[in-house]
Automatic annotation (TrEMBL):
Residues spanning the signal sequence: none
Essential cofactor(s): heme b
Enzyme Commission code(s) on record: 7.2.1.3
Gene Ontology cellular-component annotations: apical plasma membrane; lysosomal membrane
Transmembrane regions listed in the UniProt entry: 23-45, 65-89, 101-121, 141-162
Name of the protein in its database record: Plasma membrane ascorbate-dependent reductase CYBRD1
Domain Cytochrome b561 span(s) in chain numbering: 1-163
């Protein structure tokens, strides 16, 4: 979940993907989340089977409670993402209303996954290290503590990238060249209402689109420089 879910979160935030179509990025985003969900289910089954084989109680620790909660909410997030944003049945106003909730809940689930991993590795150390104990600070404790710090730093970087406006995917102006004639991009339905206007309005729209395209090209170039 930490590695694959983080990739799914930032797949829209990488400047070199901005030239790809929005639909392609949606499929990549959905595919990565599906892979993460499958791996999470396999992991949970393995944990329960291991506990049952070793006669270890299930679902008694805070780590297990928060971990199960994260998986449940992640499955709901994945289902609603497929139903609302990937399948072409949900109306545009519903998508616009749910998008901030979808983004916020995805980041919250990712932060919860990081917290679950930190609690899990600490719990494993406490139970596994007997001689010397965890409190004696053996090399294993140093290694796992460093791993925990790296997890915190990694999670902070992902959340920072997901919350910065200059990492946000530009509007779909650049994708108009690749879009079939007459097709309306997602999020620009307001432009489709102008097709019955006068020729002057259409001319103004073309001028504005050209200016926006040039601005997005500058953003693309600047974004690529920021990742080098």
């Amino acid at each position: 979940l930490v590695s694959v879910l983080s990739s799914a979160i930032i797949v829209y935030r990488l400047p070199w993907t901005w030239k790809c179509s929005k639909l392609l990025m949606k499929f990549i985003h959905a595919g990565l989340n599906t892979i993460a969900m499958i791996l999470a289910i396999v992991s949970m089954v393995a944990v329960f089977e291991f506990h049952n084989a070793k006669n270890i109680p299930n679902m008694y620790s805070l780590h297990s409670w928060i971990g199960l909660t994260a998986v449940i909410f992640y499955s709901l997030q994945l289902f609603l993402g497929f139903a609302v944003f990937l399948l072409p049945f949900a109306p545009v106003p519903l998508r616009a209303a749910l998008m901030p909730i979808h983004v916020y809940s995805g980041l919250t689930i990712f932060a919860t996954v990081i917290a679950t991993a930190l609690m899990g590795i600490t719990e494993k150390l406490i139970f596994s290290l007997k001689n010397p104990a965890y409190s004696a600070f053996p090399p294993e404790a140093t290694f796992v503590n460093c791993l925990g710090l790296l997890l915190v730093i990694f999670g902070a970087l992902i959340l920072w990238m997901a919350s910065r406006s200059h990492w946000k995917r530009p509007p779909e102006e650049n994708a108009k060249v690749l879009r079939p004639i007459g097709e309306t991009p997602e999020g620009t339905e307001a432009e489709s209402t102008m097709t019955d206007g006068s020729n002057a309005d259409k001319s103004d729209l073309r001028i504005n689109s050209e200016a926006a395209r040039k601005q997005n090209l500058k953003l693309d170039e600047a974004g690529q420089r920021s990742t080098m």
